[in-house]
Amino acid sequence: MVLGIRGEDIKMDAQNMDLHSDNRQYAVITDTEVMGNENNLYFNFGGTQAVARVSKYEISQIGDRIDFVFMPSKMHFFDKETGINYTEM
Hints:
The protein is mainly beta. It has one helix at residues 14-19; strands spanning 2-4, 10-11, 25-34, 38-45, 48-55, 65-70, 76-78.
């Protein structure tokens, strides 16, 4: 099974961290990319490369530990072989 979540639905701000504290996770930044008004933070999560789109004001460097939460309503679970979305069943 594969977890599907868009990068913009990974939240690092204090309000979402408090609101969804039960979903709090952490990872170590493996790469960064400046994209104008936002930055992409790359990290490994559950053995998979992931990317979070964050505000240009979120300054993180390779090796930094970041805390984040997923928006539960935005999570989707897929069968890797068939592509079936179990969230919509």
